[in-house]
Amino acid sequence: MSRFPLLAAALILTAAASVEAQSDEHKLDSSALAAQAAVFTRQTVVKSGALATLVTLANDPKPDCTVPENTPALRLVRLPAHGALLLQSGSKPLQYPSQNPLAACNGRMGLAMYVVYRPDAGYQGTDRLEIAFEQNQGATKMAYDITVN
User: Fold this and answer.
1) pLDDT at 9 over 70
2) pTM to 2 decimals?
3) Which of 42, 94, 122, 133 has most Cβ atoms within 10 angstroms of its Cβ?
């Protein structure tokens, strides 16, 4: 049994491999996505040997609370040099603020993709990765500056 059951079926990516993850129903021109997306940078601290969930991507349901049958399109722009990314599809409960029209959907399960970072064994220092994705709200590019200690 895997030490990390949630990630037992995960796709593992390192700097030596490059993959585009997207559903057949939600194809996009990934090079155009990376070029046009707004860039947001987050600082993250990870303990050496630990896993860190960086982002959970999910499409919003329709106003009638019907959940899309696909996860957001994801492009790996820059893989980490000192670690691996684990991409795990799964589900997550929907949760919206009470003033949001989608609050009526709270508690239902939606499809999600978890982006998890795992530093190389024994590595301590800095790492960086970038992903681009498209959700209902449009294209977004995220950069993660990671400190492993």
Assistant:
1) no
2) 0.70
3) 133
